[in-house]
Amino acid sequence: MRTRSRKGAEKCWDRRWAEGGWGSGLLVFDIFTCFRYDIVPWMLLLGTIPYRSPNCYSLSLTMIKPKILVTGATGRTGSAVVTQLLAQDWPVRALARRRDARSDLLQRRGAEVVFADIFDPGQLIDAMCGVRRAYYCPPYHPFVIQSAAAFAAAARETGLEQIVGLSQWLAGPNHPALLSRQSWLIDRMFAALPGIAHTAVTPGFFADTPYLEMLPFAAHVGVFPLPVAGESRNAPPSVDDIARVAVAALLDPARHAGKSYRPTGPKLLTVTEMVAVISRVVGHKVRHVKTPLWMFYKAAKAQGRERILLSGLRYYFQEHDRDAFAVGAPNDTVHELTGKAAEDFESITRRHAEFPESRRSFGARLAAFARFLAVPILPGFDPLTYDRAQEQPRPATPHLALDDAGWMARHRAKDSPMTGSTLKKALA
Predict the structure, then answer these.
(1) Residues 6+ away with beta carbon under 8 Å from 83
(2) Which pairing describes strands 233-234 and 269-270: parallel, antiparallel, or unpaired?
(3) Deepest in the core among 48, 62, 216, 391, taking most CB within 10 A?
(4) How many CB atoms lie within 10 A of CB 241?
(5) Any domain includes 41
(6) What integer pLDDT is reported at residue 426 of this predicted model?
């Protein structure tokens, strides 16, 4: 039986006592709760009810939903996971770095919002006290592996029962991108935690990013500036579908323990076909321009994108051109796990077209033109200089995914679209 350390247990004890309740070990109830759940009068004098003793309370009490911790709660997938859990009446503790409008919105929706440094084991222990399951969204940071190690240590200390981690399709020990190598290590570290169920969610490029980040330019300037080949393919999932897969795993740890799921959209599309969809949505012709990488870096840096992500993008765009994202796509993962078909690219695009920056207006069009024309004179980004300054470790023989025999062996079963019956068998 897995036990937590004395220090971790004491910290959780103090927090739960202050909050007036217990996590998995004991449930503390006031007299009204006891009457509500038909607790016999003599149990009221004891004040605590063993969680593992169903004879002490009614069946309805055993169905209390455990609280779920969501990291990166104000980000793309994190906020979607929080929203979907709350919609199903699951108690959520949303972890954010700092208070802002996004965290305030989650609190108004009913989440318990806490603030912590995701690299600090002590703060993570505090954040995990009283929760049983967690969604881990890795930060874009060169030391993301430290964040994951701190998260794993806190999970052991507090007796967490499950981690659902966001990973990536290209993760591997020999990939030239540091983020991909660290994602592979994080997956294996979480999987090796004794007594903690682990599920990996491994999407490729999202529909929302990078493709639809270009929508304001498409809507107002008529160009789709992305440094990938027009004939290269992907079946990009929406952020909401990625979150739905993560939520499905969080709601049934035993069923999904040890599994890895890659959500995709319902159809494999070339970039040219994506641009045709965007043209239809915005109501005018949009042209794909395979922009030089140096120019893309200027625009992305100006938008505040993390430098560790920019460093990896030069490899991810090569992977895209070589159809690494087309391997195993599309599949039925979203439908089989959630009971709902994956969103198609046009539906996702129409939702993004309603965002203020993509709506038709003179001000939005002027702003888009100004940003587009300013790109060539913006400061650039040199990934080689950045990598050297970080003193990043390098694999002895770095390989892109399709050139890596290990990656191909791990993904060989996904070389063709997974049928519903195949996935159902895997889930059985």
Answers:
(1) 109, 243
(2) antiparallel
(3) 216
(4) 28
(5) no
(6) 45
